[in-house]
Amino acid sequence: MKIIKGGICGVRGMRANGIKRGKNGLAIMIADARKLATAGVFTRNKVIAAPLVVTREALSKGGLKGIIANSGCANAFTGKKGIIDAEWMAEILANKLSCEVNEIGVASTGVIGRYLDKTWIIEHIDEVYKDLSDTEECGKSCAQAIMTTDTTMKEIAIELENGVRIAGITKGSGMIEPNMGTMLAFLYTDAELSKEKLDNCLKKAVNKSFNMVVVDGDTSTNDMAILTATGYNECEEKVFQEGLDFVCTSLAKMIARDGEGASRLIEVKVKGAQTMDDAKKAAKAIVRSPLVKTAIYGKDPNWGRVVAAAGYSGAEVDQEKISLKFSGNNKEVELVNSGRIIEGKLEELKSIMESKEIIIEVDIGIGNFEAIAWGCDLTYDYITINAMYTT
Q1: Is the CB of residue 40 less than 8 Å from the CB of residue 55?
Q2: Confidence of residue 306 (pLDDT cuts 50, 70, 90)
Q3: CATH code for residues 265-387
Q4: C-alpha–C-alpha distance, residues 345 and 361, integer Å
Q5: φ, ψ for residue 171 (rounded to 5)?
Q6: Catalytic one of 78, 182, 228, 379
Q7: Cα angle at 351 between 346 and 356, to 5 degrees?
Q8: Going edge to edge, which strands form the sheet with 66-73?
Q9: What is the 8-class DSSP label of residue 220?
Q10: Are 160 and 166 in contact (CB under 8 A)?
Q11: E-assigned strand segments in 74-221
């Protein structure tokens, strides 16, 4: 596979566009499909935003020809009015496409507990819709439109050896520890795959990518990941899965790197676990730990915090078998080997802690399962951003 330009508009059959005006944004994505199929995964937060309710219902009836997304207002915890407003968003795009309302997906991101600014959407939807195209510029405009506290646009597109293209955009910076697909992610491919195969592939990809990102430990009310196939090229499911995994993992790492206030990316590799669930628990506990995150921010070589997090993670752990390594700046240092502390490594670790990307490898030493999680350091800026989010 190779990385290509174009973002989601690099996929055959795709048109998109978006605008960003201050804290408000509006994006539209259209799939002109030969054979349409769509899959989705959604937040497990019991407070579920209205757009997710509407989109999930639409998906139960078939594929999505279009998606309309706004930023600035989450339309979450807004009761019956929120549902009516989300249905209204779907209806205005359906009318423009001359399609059924249940062929439109809706997504929102922003402040919880505020009603949708319908006037703003009405004033700007024609501006977005009239310039829909398959250009690289429109793909980027769409990716920018869904940003909130993100500092960078997040998009990627690849082409497999068989010519199939897979692409995605995402937004996510804070309120991120998924129990699903963290944030908003819109994924497109020109492969021809059934809804059942898309569902299977998306769940697998999400479980090893978006579900392994922790910025702050909060699960959003609005998290969704939607995958649409336009059906122009045949593709084996196994080959497609490899490509989709790459796209989702790349986007997940972009989210971790752009965590609110983040200055460093943290990658935690856990191996030697008794079960896959144990490997994931340990990896996420380490990358979630405020003490680990603040140590990374302060470049403090306090590696004992990593061992402690693995121990309380809920995974089966034998402290006499744990091994620990840190790496970064093209350097690696082993600190613990099968429960034994390796003396004289502190200066090497201090050098590694200067890196912008810190890799922590923990070998639990009692099994054969492994997992990787991604996160970021915890900085003063994170507190500043979220202490004044609405002001």
Answers
A1: yes
A2: very high
A3: 3.10.20.340
A4: 16
A5: -135, 145
A6: 182
A7: 130
A8: 14-21, 24-31, 66-73, 104-111
A9: P
A10: yes
A11: 104-111, 154-159, 165-171, 184-192, 213-214
**Angle at 175 (CA atoms; ends 79, 40), nearest 5 degrees:** 65
pLDDT score of 44: 76
Closest CA to 137 of 15, 13, 3: 15
Q: Is 182 an active-site residue?
A: yes
Average pLDDT on 377-388 reads: 72
Domain 2-257: homologous superfamily in CATH: L-amino peptidase D-ALA esterase/amidase (3.60.70.12)
The angle at the Cα of 291, spanning 182 to 360, to the nearest 5 degrees, equals 70
Per-residue pLDDT for 111 more than 90?
Answer: no
Cα(345)–Cα(364) distance, rounded to whole angstroms? 20
Q: What pTM, to 2 d.p., does this model score?
A: 0.85
Residue spans of the domains in the chain: they are 2-257, 265-387
Give me Rg for the CA atoms of the chain: 21
CA dist., res. 235 & res. 192, Å (int)? 7
Residue 330: CB partners within 8 Å, gap ≥ 6? Answer: none
